[in-house]
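Handoff note, outgoing to incoming analyst
You'll be picking up this chain. Sequence as last confirmed:
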Amino acid sequence: MSETLPSSLALELARVTEAGAIAAARWLGRGDKNAADKAAVDAMRDALESCPISGVVVIGEGEKDEAPMLYIGEEVGAGGPAVDIAVDPLEGTTLTAKGQPNALSTFAIAPRGTMFNPGPAVYMEKMAGGPAIADLLDLDRPIEDLLGAIAERRGCAVRDLGVVVLDRDRHMEMIGRMREAGARVRLIPDGDVAGSLMPIRAGTGIDLLWGVGGTPEGVLSAAAIRSVGGRIIGRLWPRTDEERAAIVAAGLDVERVLDTDDLVASQDALFAATGVSDGDLVHGVRFGAAQVETQTIVLRGQDRAQRVIGSTLDVEASVRRIPGSGY
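Most recent structure output, in case you need it:
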């Protein structure tokens, strides 16, 4: 397995996510999540035509809600290193429709054959944390004990810990237990790729992510975390007996806890996310009369590099290269 992805691809990935973010941001707060998603998909697909990779989409977004998508198995790129692709052109479609924070355009690559294919598994239970607590993560440990161990490792009280959780009815019992233990719980309406990165990035006030969210987002998050350290673990979470049977028929073990290396097997991963709306990781797209400003976080596994790239783009040039941008 070759691990020779050039560092120059980091900037190419940023250009792809910039395109998706700019197109989606024209729909920010306009109440139409499908239009925003389609604009991001179209713009990203167009940008990928000149990206110097030979990519196959392993993780595509859209099947579970029939949204527009870059479909699984689609071949993209202008030629170059053979890579697996995990993509969510608009992570946070509802966030975008409502004009809420932390909507992102995301994209990750790793050498061909190294990304986990979840098949029919739409959801997984996930837990993510930074390098200092990576060895403590355990989906089967009582959450009260886990929070106590994290606090001890951090040298603080449980009341000083922040946990990010998707705001879903299925999480209410666990949220209550976290609060009873003393932790501060931050509920997010959507966007658990951003949520997975919060405990990895300094300054967010978050120590742990827990919850059941999308399996594609789990692989995207793993590519990012694989690039900079920390850990994400997950276990497939079938919603029905029929879905469980389909997962088993696909050769997947619903009882197995998947570690970061299982989700993305190569250290040579690249991840990029451009802000659509302002958020904890990057600010959103900012439109001016003549220019568009973006901010992108780029993570590269080979050297554990974390870069935040600010770009100022010409409006007319953006019109020509970004279909659906609204200009």
